[in-house]
Design a protein that fits this description.
two-stranded antiparallel ribbon; 10-stranded mixed β-sheet
Length: 422
Amino acid sequence: MDADVTDSAGRTPAEPADTDNDTDNGVSDDNDAEAPASGPDRKRHWLRWTALGTSVVVLAVAGAGWWFYKKLDGNITTDTGAAAELRTYEKERPTPIVLDAKNILLIGSDSRSGKGNDKYGRDDTGSQRSDTTILLHLAEDGQSATGVSIPRDLMVDIPSCRKPDGTRSTAQFAQFNWAFQFGGTACTVRTVEKLTGIRVDHHMVVDFNGFKGIVDAVDGVEVCLKEPVDDIQAQLRLPAGTQTLDGEQALGFVRARHGIGDGSDTQRMERQQRFLGALFKKVRSNGVLLNPTRLYPVLDAATKSITTDPGLNSLTDLYDLARSMQSVPVEKVQFLTVPRQPYRADRNRDELVQPAAGNLFERLREDGPVAVETPGGTDRKGAGAGPTAEPGTTAGSTPTAGSTPGPGPTFEGTNAAAGLCE
């Protein structure tokens, strides 16, 4: 064979075939593979691993966030029955005047049904009444929030309502908290709208356990007691002095009527208002809304405890609501009780004081400013704090029908800045 003839691989017959043990300038291929990357190669290698690690972390956080969101979102109970009932009576409901203002009816149910609630009394086959009802008005400009307590013993016109068994109640003049017993949330909303002329945009129902859970989630609320409390019915025993109440104690504190104060429903509502103000103040001051580790237990307790209309039945809806409250100055988170006095036919019941109550409802309807002031040491039902004031208000100008609400009157009440120890 000619010397210049090559094989199929292009080698001359004298050239040995390359193997893994071949060397190039005395360095093996294996050593080439193990040599550390230099310069740009090393940088690219590091960037690839950094990107991979970051991606894993982002996916893990996103997955955990999505899991927490779905869990909290799934906690919320939607009251579709109330929404359907209210749609049936849409034509008789008030028309909103200020579209960007919001009116939310907060209902504290005294039902003993449900896990953990039986310790507060016997469950009469699931019957319930509204232990606490507050109409919360959020101003259009986002700079004030006004909560108006409606006494459970206030005598009002309750419309015919659909009962849980499908039958209908008879329209009647009765104490307010019967509306919840007759027809649940829808009946209560219709009764409030008939009483006030204010369109209720949303509603929330909170039970005993839900309230306790929220208080525990913020590590309790501080109160100052001048005298010790011993109320067997509310299962509450507290010493005098400054102390932080946990959820169980807080529930007894806002429900107690015996062994604390004068035992009146008036003082009980005032105590509820001041406690809610202190709770709001603590959530704001402790940075709960901006700290995920502190916010999660609050959201978990809150979402487990509430039943809402379809317009507030998602975590996004509730977050938007909480965010709108974030900008409200603490001193502009106000609470008051609708002006009322003992009912003439039964001193154990209440009736509205007019025209003070009508003036209050008009200001809320038209999103006018509402000012509150702590009464000067008086606990009289409907008593005015000023010598020339209408019952339930201090002196001030009174709006006329159809006018734009101006300053005054000032109503007896409190705000979240006051807390429970001032």
